[in-house]
Design goal:
- The chain is of the alpha/beta class.
- The chain folds into 2 domains: 122 residues, Ribosomal protein L1/L10, rRNA-binding domain (Ribulose 1,5 Bisphosphate Carboxylase/Oxygenase), CATH 3.30.190.20; 83 residues, Ribosomal protein L1/L10, domain II (Rossmann fold, 3-Layer(aba) Sandwich), CATH 3.40.50.790.
- Helix content is 32%, strand content 20%.
- The protein is built from 9 helices and 9 strands.
- Helix 2 crosses helix 8 and helix 3 packs parallel to helix 7.
- The longest helix is centred in the last third of the chain and has 17 residues.
- The protein is globular.
């Protein structure tokens, strides 16, 4: 079993593993326990009561973080004609159609998000084996397949994040950087929780959202008070 280094152990000693922290205290602690030399990301990990093996218990969506993510997203857009020009004006790094499909089939995946207009999905579908395992396949549920491609790109550039439940029933998503003010991280936390609550699938049984944990890159996990975290959302679980 891998052993944690000295810096991690010193950071973990600041966290009470038996305590559920109010969100403001959790945010302060996740910043205090970050020990990397770079500006670490802050991530939220949500353990759900879902069984992802069932189609009606899948969760996938997106949230626009009011304070942004703290990183620049590299966006490629599958579009033609006026929609291609709209995508370029909105800031997409690469815009294309058949030429872009061929480039990606050749092994190029140097981007963070792919978006497409609906009419392009017949062509983009050929990239399923390349983009699917990387979580890069455009999808209507995450807002990356849309006729309003310019707006989608601007939202992504401005702080939109995608989320989905993994095979173990956990949702992972970034909500900012350690360098952010506490209030900005809290605003982003509330926006993400709200979006996940709204994305509750029809097949969900029992408790939908079981635990919320914050962690910085390489840092220890901090469990948040469930009720107080849900209270940050404008909807109810």
């Amino acid at each position: 079993m891998a052993r944690h280094g000295k810096k991690y152990r010193e950071a973990a000693d600041k966290v009470d593993p038996l305590k559920q922290y109010p969100p403001p205290d959790g945010v302060k602690l996740v910043k205090d326990t970050s020990f990397t030399k770079f500006d670490a990301s802050v991530e939220l990990h949500i353990r759900t009561g879902l069984d992802p093996k069932h189609a009606d218990q899948q969760v996938r969506g997106s949230a626009v973080l009011p304070a942004g993510t703290g990183r620049t997203q590299r966006v490629v857009a599958f579009a033609q004609g006026d929609k291609a020009r709209e995508a370029e004006a909105a800031g997409a790094e690469v815009v294309g159609a058949e030429d872009l499909v061929t480039r990606i089939q050749g092994g190029w995946t140097d981007f963070d998000v792919a978006v497409a207009t609906p009419d392009m999905m017949g062509m983009v579908g050929r990239l399923g084996r390349v983009l699917g395992p990387r979580g890069l396949m455009p999808n209507p549920r995450s807002g990356t397949v849309t006729p309003d491609i310019g707006r989608a790109i601007r939202e992504i550039k401005g702080g939109r994040v995608e989320f989905r439940v993994d095979r173990t029933g956990v949702i992972h998503a970034p909500i900012g950087k350690v360098s952010f003010d506490d209030e900005k991280i809290l605003q982003n936390l509330g926006a993400l929780v709200d979006a996940v609550v709204r994305a509750k699938p029809t097949g969900a049984k029992g408790t939908y959202l079981k635990t919320f944990n914050l962690a910085s890159t390489m840092g220890p996990s901090i469990e948040l008070d469930n009720a107080l975290t849900l209270a940050l959302a404008s909807t109810e679980a």
